[in-house]
Amino acid sequence: QVQLVESGGGAVQAGGSLRLSCASSGRTFSSYVMGWFRQAPGKEREFVAGISLSGRNTDYADSVKGRFTISRDNNKNSVYLQMNSLKPEDTAVYYCARARRPSTTLVRRASDFGNWGQGTQVTVSS
Question: For residue 55, what pLDDT is reported?
């Protein structure tokens, strides 16, 4: 069973930055699309960003485009989310996720992801 462990969350003022990391167990990390999702209190979990197997292709929700950057290091079995110009509305629990099946296709529906981390809290104050 694959385990995903996020780190790097915390509290920051609006306009600040945070970098989230997600470490994956297992030896097939490079065969899966990876993604970041977030869930704010009282809201549904929403897609934030996704990255292809090599890292060459990325996909972002409109709400974070231009402010967040997803990347991966297949040698370290890790995926990252650099978050700049943070806003109070970015406050949420952020989850790392692995696609349900090995594929080259970027996906963004939560149902397309089969493994999830425990989440890390990001709080942005105004």
Answer: 96
